[in-house]
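Form 12-C: Joint structure prediction
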Amino acid sequence: MPASADKHILKNISGFPEFSPEAQILFNQVIAKIREAYEGCGAIPIETSAVERTSHILAKGGNDKEIYGLHRLQDASDSAAKDYALHFDLTLPLARYVAQNGHRLVFPFKRYQIQPVWRGERAQNKRYRQFYQCDVDVIGDGQLSLLYDAEIPAVIYQIFSSLEIGAFVIRINNRKVLKGILNHFGIQGDAAELEALNIIDDLEKTGLEDVTQRLTALGADPKALSAITGFFSINGPVNAILNELQALDYGETFSQGVTELTTVCTAITAFGVPATAFKIDLSIARGLDYYTGTVYETQLLSNPSIGSICSGGRYDNLAENFSKKRYPGVGISIGLSRLLGELIEKQILTVGPQSIAPVLVTVIDQSKMTHYLALTAQLRTAGIKTEIYLEPKKLKNQLAHANKKGIKIALIAGETEFEHDEILVKDLRQQTQQSIPTGKLVPYIQSLLAI
Amino acid sequence: MPASADKHILKNISGFPEFSPEAQILFNQVIAKIREAYEGCGAIPIETSAVERTSHILAKGGNDKEIYGLHRLQDASDSAAKDYALHFDLTLPLARYVAQNGHRLVFPFKRYQIQPVWRGERAQNKRYRQFYQCDVDVIGDGQLSLLYDAEIPAVIYQIFSSLEIGAFVIRINNRKVLKGILNHFGIQGDAAELEALNIIDDLEKTGLEDVTQRLTALGADPKALSAITGFFSINGPVNAILNELQALDYGETFSQGVTELTTVCTAITAFGVPATAFKIDLSIARGLDYYTGTVYETQLLSNPSIGSICSGGRYDNLAENFSKKRYPGVGISIGLSRLLGELIEKQILTVGPQSIAPVLVTVIDQSKMTHYLALTAQLRTAGIKTEIYLEPKKLKNQLAHANKKGIKIALIAGETEFEHDEILVKDLRQQTQQSIPTGKLVPYIQSLLAI
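Section 2 - Result
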């Protein structure tokens, strides 16, 4: 791990990393860009409680080895707390929230949610036990147009373009296409299909031969080996892949998947996502999840080893464990804590200084303190983020403080300056300085900061 | 509870309330203003893990009846998780963070932290078990100028002015003043002093007679009754109170407290806080906390029953349980979840519509879908938050959707409009509409939204 990562991803309790203030500033900037993209497409925020009922979490298939339950440290009789557990994702809470509050919500309900989640996994390389998820989903009341499946990649494209982390590609597939070909070649039933999807998910890791062998072992018709191999070898531009798929006759589900994929890809282009930023990848299965149609993963081309930086898909029935109503939806999740750690470690994003305020008011004459405080207040009122150095230290030490924090501008004034109603403005980046009349100080600083 | 509050503060698990999307939008706006004020004074963000070591929490005096410990649901052998507990405030985590990372931080270290905390209190009227705290603190390395105690009220003033929730007053006192008078009249020692501070905290609730009686029972010289009564009756403008206090001779600690109070109040004024927004209140004790000098509470004048909306103070040694180094500090905390609930319930803040995006693109001709998607992308690229209605519904239903969500502008176009390169822009607030050439659409919408 390069020194920069070690310096900014702090260690306290294993699996519960914390950031340095500099890295936290960067983290907040990234969150702001994600929020902007989510709100830009019309999503509204919700936050759910960190705690869900244990019974709900387990009913929805939560892995009880990874769920943190709560108990009061000293109150054995407190049975209520025993039914509380920390949420392990933001989808189950969304399902419960929509089922409970559906009558207050306007559908299609497009919500985003940016919160930490907890998974008590064995601490491994880069597996965090607490990490932020940044989710956006569109939920329909009874039905939801397939075109929302195309809006999601448009949002992904905006986020990762604005983050300036290099070229990326959104890889798109459709579960019905996979289910269709599996059924066609003899793999039937939920359990076998799920296992097959997990095998297909390994394609990039273990290779085509391994995958076809394992699918055959699972029940795929041995005579279909070359057809299956052919299918997973399909590659190329979106339209070429669609043409190849349209020529295959693997049954109704398969055809429906191909039609969906065609509609979605056409609409993604209409939404302005360039052809270089998305592709069809028939090996994307998202095996463990509850998806039923479109699925997405996103890969950073410079660092594919990071894995998918943003994943999601379409599901038929969000709240089946909580409501008799049918709520289909489509959405994605960004696991931001781990992603930011990787981006810092691989020096794709650079951590800046330990400051947000660009201006430091120094104090060189304690007897004029009210002047310094009033000057500080004047700048803050004008919207200029300003720190004032109130420890009784030499100017040299105060400027060293500013430099250590990466502060851009220091203001210096003593008796003479206050008498003449002017302030010495020192640009610490350029090592230049100029005396400015107090009345012109705000616009002068604003112009300096615009550079 | 008025319907508005019931509608926006949703019920799930008792003590873990959630907001409606509309209330969450308001919550986020309030957070943004608090963040702006904190960053405006030069504070930088940190976030600590939700989890601390149980041993740390209990060492620092956490109330073990209120602390939620963690355990994996199915893993009795997992002893590690048994040492994890959810933090109950943000001060203990700050102390641990500063002790661990002090060598990487630039001092004075001014940090803010906005995160949920958890307290397993018995669910009572408006006591939440999960709630947001918004803290700002300045931490010194070995020493910290008293003038930072004056900067904190300047920040409080900015926050609550910008929230436009009516007149408020920051009530300021100094623990040394209280300790001085207690010692002078016979109440000595940490335990007795702490008890006396809790009694003084009750002054507003139980009245002066009750407080003086209880202080006498605790060991205060019965002959001092009238002096104590006189002291707690001191009231008036800041300078009048300071003059009265300066005339009293209750020993060295008392005098030091009065000197500190004088310095702090002078600097608060220099920071631009108007005289109407702060006062000295000798009954403010903040008994349960670890404060050693200045203490603050803030009261909303229209609704004093809400209690203090922002409290804090100066402490001598932040990290005494974690470090041999001395870190004095001063800071405040805003318990935002409960505060926002109160402000909504008392209709001091009004919850807005269930939308952030001001524009809805309607779809009236499915065969022109790529046009609608491109139009949407064009607006989003220009920074206009835009929703597109993709369900195949009648225009009437689409406009009803916009109205239910409080969306301001609907765009309508069919074959004719696309042929003529123009869009019908409908202002849903004014019920007016106008055809605008596509090339002028962005500036036209921007000008409409500026109204």
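Section 3 - Comments
Chain B has 18 helices and 18 strands. The mean pLDDT of chain B is 94.
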